[in-house]
Amino acid sequence: MSPIRSLAGLGRPSLLGALVFSLFAIAAFIAASRTGRRDLSQAGKRALYATFGFTALATISLVTALLAHDFSLSYVTSYTSRSLSVPYTISSLWGGMEGSLLFWTTLLTGFSALAIAKAPARNSRLVGAAGAVLMGIAAFFLFMVAFPGNPFAEVAGDVPVDGNGLNPLLQSPGMVIHPPLLYTGFVGFSIPFAFAIGALFTKRLDDSWFTATRQWTLFAWTALSIGIVLGGAWAYTELGWGGYWAWDPVENASFMPWLTATAFLHSVVIQEKRRMLKVWNVTLIVLTYGLAVFGTFLTRSGLLSSIHTFSEGPIGKYFLPFLALLLVGGLGMVAYRLDALRSENRLDSLISRESAFIANNVLFVAAAFTVLWGTIYPIVAEVSSGIRLSVGPPFFNTIFAPIGLAIIGLTGIGPLISWRRMSKGAFWRMVRVPLGAGGLTVLALGLGGLSSPGALLSFALCAFTSTAIIGEFVRGSRVYRRRDSVGPLTALNRTIARNRRRYGGYIVHLGVLLIVIGFAGNAFKVERRADMAPGDTLDVGSYTLTYEGVRTATTSEKDIFEATLAVSRGDDGVGTMRPQRNLHLAQGQWQSEVAIRTNPIEDLYVVVTGFDTDRSAVIRTFVNPLTWWIWAGAAVMLAGMLVVMSGRAPVTVTAAKRAPAKREPAVAR
Amino acid sequence: MRRLTLMALVFVTLATPATAQSPEDLANDISHKVMSPFCPGVTLHDCPSQSALDMRDRIEGYARAGMDEAAIMERLETEYGDAIRAEPSSDGVGIIAWVLPALAALAGGALAFMLVRHWTARRPRQLADGRDEPARVETSPAERQRLDAELGRLRGES
């Protein structure tokens, strides 16, 4: 008997209450935006807080129903069971479509409340318009969870004594954190999107909209980045195929907004520094949010499994018009305000950091388009010609690899070029050392026996770019070492502290390079598979695995079958690995638990895919070189983003002189 | 430096893997090139289901029987249809999948290049009072060289 009482009865009334308040908030915010009246803005804010309060109450109601095993609710029956542990019972909130939409809505209303509460009162027209957009989005999602995707729907007939349980694949620590981080990223982009649309409506097209939402954009991007990496880590440790990225549509759904958001984070710097690319920046944030909603739609509509299940699903027919409204409305507003969005400056030279940023943006958007096109093309082909075809990893790898490598190269070139203009001679002087590092890397690896052209090029570009970035730190630190006569670490610390956004960005880039090194290691992957009787050996890479036998155990949730493998390298024993193959009792589903020995050079990855009655086992094993660097790179990226987020936004002289009253020091970081 | 770059290019060009494949390796290679009929959106290699492993064994069996990659792919297509291939074909409807991203990237690059050229074009800028901004004084190559040298020295000092 659970000590928690189900509050499911409060769920739907709370959602309906939240829907009513969100509609009221839209009206109040629109009126505030048109008149500039602060009392109307205050009314809108209060209605927004109430919307969040009621949505949060609905979420709490569902969580209590999950924890109390209230199997009168269809959702609780479908995604939990009595034997499920408490953390996974709570995580089943985002284990199904209805719960995840409710979670999405709660994050949206919570983020909206925070963003609007912190927005400066003097920008009441912009804040009013942004609030109306946010509440419009919230109203749509509240309608979805209150009606077609209601998580509080009751089971038909008798209440079952136990539920179906959560999919065993989702019962992993990674899956407790990964979906909330992805959703935090997706929903976080609502804030810059709403302020951008608000700026278009109110014609306040200066820096207000992006300075007010800068931290939200960085926060959303960071959450999405870490969420994507955690998704890869989950696939690597749970799915048992020895990889971390399969270009499957669900992964692509999270990757597309990440690509356009990354382009936005770079191009917005040009708007800050040079008052250029205003049209492009607004367009990018509209596309980013559109892709975030599209990602949610893609993974929750059933569209991907078949074009036919899409129209039969409960939410697909509502999502598509909403998505069309976001994109057509957003881009239509950009077109309507084209004159007001004209650049205030021109480029001075082709060889300039601005040009590098523009090239970077073209590549990121081309990459996003490639992923989008590859993801939806099977649907397009089926609808247009009736032909069923697949677009899988070979397509994405072929097209994405050159784009990705070009981006890595530009990441190195960018910091070497100055703003506005640079002579060819000065450019050559800056670029020759990194170029030399790249060339030497190719030479050393080639002489060392590395023969894969793709891997050689990847390592060379990583060497080029990392030398260019490290050079920036060295040049910056040298100033402090000479001026203040301090040690190298203090000088480095002062360099980073002086301009956290710039040097934090460089740290993020170094993290990306480490990740690319990890990807390049994939070219040298070794895979072996064998049926092994006790005492049999299997060679993989430089390792020898000896199968010693199987151990069995039973818990309330599963029957455990654990293989024991002694690992040696030459004559040296390395250790013992114990992969499992478990039968999850509630679902009657088999699930492999991978065993991994990891170090910076390579991972030894072992999975058991089946046992025979004679105690023999089917063993699949991989040696994955350099995979460790992917996770290390993600940690470096996160550290870099924390440095970036702790930095203040630069206040340009022209902006400060022109419109000092419009800047918002409290949030312009 | 030029010699180094050339040597690097030679290494990249010449370094091509060429080894005879065992039936297991060929089956592994093919498993990356076909979609799993058992896991939607995932290649046969990445699909963890028992049926996918059985299918890989069957492909390895074809390879042991002497079939090459093209023959195995054709057989799989006959059994499962065109959608078994993990990449669209380079003819018919499939070609659009390949061509459009390349065209879009080219168009985007060309547009960006034209914009940059347009923005960098030398023309008088309008001042706030409507007059043209005075033309810039162009620096001579000798002056530019001296400026670069001075800037280089400054960087070295800082």
Describe this structure in words.
The complex is a heterodimer of chains A (669) and B (158). Chain A is α+β, with helices and mostly antiparallel strands. Among the domains of chain A are: 1-156, no CATH class; 526-625. Helices cover 63% and strands 11% of the residues of chain A. In chain A, strands 2, 3, 4, 5, 6 and 7 form a 6-stranded antiparallel sheet that branches. Chain A has a 4-stranded antiparallel sheet with strand order 1-10-9-8, with no helix packed on it. In chain A, a hairpin with a 3-residue loop joins strand 8 and strand 9. Chain B contains 6 helices and no strands. Chain B starts with a helix and ends with a helix. The relative contact order of chain B is 0.06. The model of chain B is unreliable at 6-18 (pLDDT under 50). Chains A and B meet through helix 14, helix 15, helix 16, helix 17 and strand 1 of A and helix 1, helix 2, helix 3, helix 5 and helix 6 of B.
Q: How many distinct beta strands of chain B?
A: 0
Proportion of β residues of chain B? under 5%
Shape of chain B: elongated
Query: Helical region count of chain B?
Result: 6
Q: Which residues of chain B sit in consecutive blocks of at least 5 with pLDDT less than 50?
A: 6-18
Principal-axis shape of chain A equals: globular
The largest interface is: A-B, 77 and 64 residues
Distance between the termini of chain B: 26 Å
Instruction: Bin the helical content of chain B.
Output: 55-70%
Main beta sheet of chain B: none
Rg of chain B: 29 Å
